[in-house]
Design a protein that fits this description.
The chain has helices spanning 3-26, 35-58, 62-65, 69-92, 97-106, 112-124, 132-153, 162-167, 170-183, 190-216, 227-248, 254-265, 271-278, 283-308. The longest helix has 27 residues, at 190-216. The protein starts with a helix and ends with a helix. The chain contains 14 helices and no strands. The protein is globular. Keywords: Cell membrane, Membrane, Transmembrane, Transmembrane helix, Transport.
Length: 310
């Protein structure tokens, strides 16, 4: 499959949806006060519905999960490499305190739900790539709220148990529910399946519209204010994805290597700014990191596929 030809129109469609959200927020059609409700629907209802639907569609069970051990271990290792890249970048840029924490935290994980999942389904769905979505979701959720959360809050405020956030995460719970249904051969009525599918499919459009709205409420003038964010972007979304792809292809399938590359290249997760505000970190730096990496990833992801196809 020519992934470059497949990804260009998809990224163009993604950009249009982001622009719709951006325009809706700038013109006042969507108010800032509505953003928590939209994100709540997406993260607590739509994405879990999509996850359950994919597990049921692919008949992924606890047993089949164990068959992807190399992919799981590779993804876990990748997150630690991303963390190391963030720490190295913060030292190179001489960042201190809360700003250094945000820089390192933004290096781990990315916008998996709203960007990576639609791309996996578009590029690799016909080749059985959808089976990796729930598997990678488990690793992403776990590492973001353990390793990533630790980097965000390192040395700041009281220590919290990150496992509570993982266990109570709606996506994590939906994965467990879906795996139980398939593993124990529990049938689900068609009317429920179709409803789950309809709700889950709203993620593709509304996830990107929400992303555009988020950009509309942020200060775009700050994009080039912090040179260290450009270092973050270069490390996380360009250098490391290429390194990970070319190393992992020696022991993983081509599709698995490209999925790891996509996950690594994804822009900083939108919850980064929420974490920064909640723990009195550098909120402006976090918001700028989200805006900058999101906008630039629209260009860098097609470039990555172009480079690996040479």
């Amino acid at each position: 499959m020519n992934y470059m030809m497949a990804i260009l129109p998809k990224m163009g469609g993604f950009l249009l949806l982001v622009l719709i959200g951006f325009t809706a927020s700038r013109t006042g059609i969507i108010k800032k006060e509505a953003m928590p409700s939209i994100s709540g629907f997406l993260l607590r209802i739509a994405l879990p519905a999509l996850t359950i639907g994919l597990i049921l569609e692919n008949q992924t069970t606890f047993q089949t999960m164990t068959q992807y051990g190399k992919m799981v271990l590779s993804q876990i290792l990748m997150y630690f490499v991303m963390a190391a890249g963030g720490i190295l970048g913060s030292h190179i840029c001489h960042l201190k305190g809360a700003t250094a924490n945000v820089h390192c935290g933004c290096s781990v994980g990315g916008n998996y739900g709203f960007l990576v999942i639609p791309l996996i389904m578009t590029l690799f769905g016909a080749q059985g790539g959808n089976v990796y979505i729930p598997i990678c979701s488990v690793i992403d959720t776990t590492l973001v709220w353990t390793l990533g959360f630790t980097l965000f809050t390192n040395g700041i405020g009281p220590k919290e148990n990150p496992w509570k956030k993982i266990i109570m995460n709606p996506i994590f719970l939906s994965i467990l529910l879906g795996l139980c249904l398939t593993s124990f051969h529990i049938s689900v009525p068609d009317i429920i399946l179709s409803t789950i599918g309809s709700v889950g499919n709203t993620c593709y459009s509304w996830g990107l519209v929400y992303l555009g709205c988020s950009l509309g409420f942020m200060k775009l003038t700050n994009i080039f204010k912090y040179k260290s964010i450009l270092v973050l972007f270069f490390t996380k979304s360009f250098a490391l994805p290429l390194i990970i792809y070319f190393i992992s292809r020696h022991f993983l399938s081509e599709i698995e290597s490209m999925i790891l590359m996509l996950i690594c290249a994804a822009p900083a997760m939108t919850t980064s700014s929420m974490i920064a505000e909640q723990y009195n970190l550098d909120g402006e730096y976090a918001s700028t990191a989200v805006v900058t990496t999101t906008l630039l990833c629209m260009l860098i992801i097609p470039l990555l596929f172009c480079l690996i196809s040479l």
